[in-house]
Prior knowledge:
By secondary structure, the protein is mostly helical. It has helices at 2-10, 21-27, 38-44, 49-62, 66-91, 106-119, 124-128, 133-155, 160-178, 187-199, 207-215, 219-227, 247-266, 286-305, 310-323, 344-360, 365-389, 393-403, 408-420, 424-437, 442-454, 458-471, 476-488, 492-505, 510-522, and strands at residues 230-231, 236-237. The protein is elongated, with a radius of gyration of 25 Å.
Amino acid sequence: MLCCLGIAIYFNTFFSSFHLDDYHSFVTNPAIRHLSNLQALWSFWPTRFVTYLTIALNYALGQYRVFGYHLFNLIVHLGASILVWWFTLLTLSTPAMKDNPISSHSRLVSLFVGLVFVSHPIQTQGVTYIIQRTTSLAALFYLASLCLYIQARLLEDKERRRSRLSYAGSLLAAVLAMFTKEMTITLPLMVLLYEFCFLKDQKGMNKKTLWPFLATFLLIPLTMFLTKSVDFLQMRRVTEGPVGFTPLEYLLTQFRVMVTYLRLTFLPIHQNLDYDYPILKSLIDPSFLVSLLLLIIILIMAQRLFSKYRLISFSIFWFFLTLLPESSIIPIRDVIFEHRLYLPMVGFALFLVSSLYELLKDKNLKVMTTLLLVIIACYSVLTYRRNFVWRDDLTLWNDVVQKSPQKARGYSNRGLAYAGQGKIKKAIADYNMAIKIKPDYDDTYNNRGNAYALEGRLDDALTDFNKTIKINPLYVAAYNNRGNIYAEKGDLDKAFADFNKALEINPGYVETYNSRGVLYAQEGN
């Protein structure tokens, strides 16, 4: 049933186009073009090596045909949903839960938790946005590791051999998770939380099984440090520029973001790829204070519910713990993204189903079943409809512009979509709007320069490329594009200078080798 529902609500995504980070991650990424070149994949993003290995496999099988990428993403989502079902089933058979009345309906409860997870419309970004397999694949390994760990613990006094195999599989899945996406760093803490909630006995927790898991906590920071892929002083990847706000401002903003995430789980409407979200700068900002108070009340409620409603309490702690890596003091350029809710949605699904059960009790099981079927049906319709927004760049960025009319990125990317369809005047109009909102937007100046070049307005194009380089002296594409304009105007010395500068900044920028090669050919060289 889980798989059938997942296929039914996602089959309309199979031919949706690439979007946003898809282009940088694999459309223009030479590292994924040779599956055997593992060193290139590792160098591109060490802590996401497994993710890019799967992308390289997709490329080897189908190059840039989107069907294969979407099929893989859907298989991952269905696999994660099955693991959510299994995780719930295992939890209801633990020593702390097996005598609870809810466990007598464990199969029904587990099925509904899986159905809520697979159908919820907030998951669309983690499934339909191709590069966000980083999130869904990481969640798959995270859940597999946790499920195998629970199975190993439940079997350790009955079937030693199976228990050891499950434990080994759990550790392997944990390592794979850590090299899929950094947010899986919470897995050792989740194992610790799970032990405390469901597995510990009168002797306490099993330290022999815990220590190896706690040691995996070091995998991600050690990899970042040894590969020098992260600037720990600036708290960002070395290939990324400044985020534009301080760690404290990011932290303050995240308290309000978490409240928005809660709203999206309960009321998944007005979804948006690119929220226009204000950065909070003060500890006395009313938005921060109200959000902080609400979150504290929720956590206190979770703690007080623990003794009587352990599953509900655990589901609340799951939600916030899995959000922690991306909603903490470590700044990320985009303060809010819906795909960050993919793994926390396990907690929400558990909370929704177990709360309805406790509210209605098993005497009203038919009422609970009916309510959940209605909720899942609504989620499914919303998911199916939301997926149409992801059909192509124009439908996606039209949606963003409508919902975030004061944010420049929507106009800039819609302009690119128009340019891709040959609608240059519409593209330039959108670029103008983006620059009006954000006068220092280097990407938009570069894109508008390309649009001017297509119209034959070489001087205007040159002005925009100059502006791009002034804003960002390391903008490789702008040097390449300006070099092409100089070449077209016959100023070959300046053209060669720009091409050489582009390759000095990025020796792997293949477009510039091509541009410079054309120029050499024109010279008879």
